[in-house]
Amino acid sequence: MYTIILILHILVSVVLCVVVLLQSSKGSGLAGAFGGGGGLPQQIFGTRGMTTILHKLTIYLAAGFFITSALLFGLSAPRGATGGRSVVREAARGAAPQSPAPVAPTGGATAPAEQPAGQPAEAPPGR
Predict the structure, then answer these.
(1) Using CA atoms, how far apart are residues 12 and 6, in angstroms rounded to an integer?
(2) Is the model more confident about 96 or about 89?
(3) Alpha helix (H) ranges present in 1-127?
(4) For residues 8 and 16, is the Cβ–Cβ distance under 8 A?
(5) Each residue's pLDDT tens digit, 8-41
(6) What average pLDDT does the segment 54-73 reach?
(7) Would you kindly state where each structural domain of the chain is located, as residue ranges?
(8) What does the pLDDT average to over 45-50?
(9) CB distance 38 to 32 below 8 Å
């Protein structure tokens, strides 16, 4: 199903690009090259007919583009799937904050050195 919608989406995209390029602009665009300024298309569709058909076709193709985009989004990742690959999550795991380096205390006091387990702590001299 996903492949069929993807192929349809690509076809709609290409045809939409062609139809938009064929529409006449102020300088007649590519429509002039294909007879938009006269010739066979004007004889078939009339003076105003070619633009009306291209405008309607653009609207329908744009709607088809948005619908196929939404369908592809809905089919690409099923809801509740935790096994999906997320670039953001992978980057967050790779850049996990490391514990900060120990900071030496400021002032005149010095921190006592850590004692190995099983040995009693020595009392400071003079007490």
Answers:
(1) 10
(2) 89
(3) 2-22, 40-76, 87-94
(4) no
(5) 999 999 999 999 888 876 555 555 555 555 555 5
(6) 92
(7) 2-78
(8) 59
(9) no
How many Cα atoms occupy the beta-carbon half-sphere of 94 within 13 Å? 6
Rounded-to-integer distance, Cα 62 and Cα 53, Å:
14
Residue identified by tokens 């592809």 is: 72
What is the Cα–Cα distance from 98 to 23, expressed in whole angstroms? 59
For 31, the 3-state DSSP assignment is helix
Long-range pairs for 15-19 at CB < 8 Å and ≥24 separation? 15/61, 16/58, 16/61, 16/62, 16/65, 19/54, 19/57, 19/58, 19/61
Amino acid symbol at 47? T
